[in-house]
Design a protein that fits this description.
With about 100 residues, this protein is mainly alpha-helical. It is about 75% helix and about 0% strand. The protein has 4 helices and no strands. The relative contact order is 0.11.
Length: about 100
């Protein structure tokens, strides 16, 4: 691979990383909006299991988020450090969480 191809691949990887991050945020916002909507619009016997499942997926320490794994692949391809968690990483960037 010559340098022109390497530069083109780096640009493509940067664009893909941006799209992955944007889709990750979009997914999280939609999940956050869906919880109150399900509670308001569905009967309790439907909304309670759905909300419990959403909360389990969102706050579980044992489950790895596939979006975060995909983002880490493209972060390493673009020379950026990998992140441990998407939300905690972005809270640090906003100054809402203390850095270790």
């Amino acid at each position: 691979m010559d340098t022109k191809d390497a530069v083109e691949m780096k640009i493509i990887d940067e664009i893909l990383l941006f799209l992955i991050q944007w889709l990750h945020w979009t997914f999280l916002v939609l999940i956050g909006v869906s919880v109150p909507l399900v509670l308001l619009l569905e009967p309790i016997y439907v909304s309670l299991p759905i909300c419990a499942w959403i909360m389990h997926l969102g706050f579980s320490r044992t489950l790895d988020c596939p979006w975060t794994r995909l983002e880490n692949v493209y972060r390493s391809k673009t020379g950026r450090p990998e992140i441990g968690g998407f939300i905690s990483h972005n809270l640090k960037l906003l100054g809402l969480k203390k850095k270790k």
